[in-house]
Amino acid sequence: MSMLKKALERGLTPTNIINYASLQVMTRWGRFYGTLRLRCKALFVGVPIGAGVTAHGPVGLMRWPGSHISIGAGVSLISSWRRATAAALATPVRLRTYGPGARIDIGPGAQLSGTSITARSTAISIGRQALLAPNCIIVDSDFHAHWPPEARATEPGMEGDRPVTIGDYAWIGLNCIILKGVTIGEGAIIGAGSVVTKDVPPHSLAVGSPARVVRSLVPDEDRAAAAHVNVHAAGLITGQATGQTTSAVQPQTPQGGE
Fold it and tell me: Where are the strands (E) in 64-196, listed by range?
């Protein structure tokens, strides 16, 4: 009663209190039930899960015999529009491997919302505390041969499969598609709706279809300091290769001669 009294004193109407209470019950129950379902399913299909993993809504785990799926400690898997913050979800989270050599590794603390990850014959790795906004798709394959056209429906073209790596602390925006063979560097950001077909350097912003790097995320002073270190290191390497020393390490001649 004291909590209700305080809420009313702050100007909260009974309707607002009921709405807030409903949201809290929905969130807590959804997380409890989703996590319980995930852990039971993972136990049956042989998917190791770290401590503190939570799921809100159903999570699809489809592991081919001999393949590998792992979910690191503290990972959050959001598969319900009730829990998703930025947008409604088109589908639940789905992790699927198609062959005995395929693997999917979700790093500690990563957050996935309605993400679909499909590894057919190689590896897809999501880094530590990476953020994947709603409705992203990540694949390691084209799933059909490019040539000849009449064989596309029957030829899998597995020789073209390539691994995908998303670095630690990367942030993938809404509705992005990450295609085979891509490496997204540590701390990079991919703008919403982008289609990533090539590597993205660490700490950079890439947008568009196909995604292109538009700027560095490193502050100017940090970038200048890094450039100074790189130039100095390059000078030392060049000096060692030519048998000479750079001015930074060049011995001083005594004043007045010998």
Answer: 68-71, 76-78, 94-97, 103-106, 111-113, 116-119, 123-126, 131-132, 137-139, 164-166, 171-172, 177-178, 183-184, 189-190, 195-196
Are 136 and 176 spatial neighbours (Cβ–Cβ below 8 Å)? Answer: yes
- Return the closest-CA partner of residue 114 out of 42, 167, 55, 155: 55
Structural domain tally of the chain? 2
Distance (Å, rounded) from C-alpha 34 to C-alpha 147? Answer: 43
Higher pLDDT, 100 or 84: 100
Q: Kindly report the pTM of this predicted structure.
A: 0.79
- CA–CA distance, 86 with 39 (Å, rounded to integer): 26
Total Cβ atoms within 10 A of residue 83: 20
Residue range 61-71, pLDDT digits in tens: 999 999 999 99
- Residue 166, number of CB atoms within 10 A of its CB: 31
Domain that holds residue 132: 2-216
Instruction: Check which CATH number belongs to the domain holding 202 and give it.
Output: 2.160.10.10
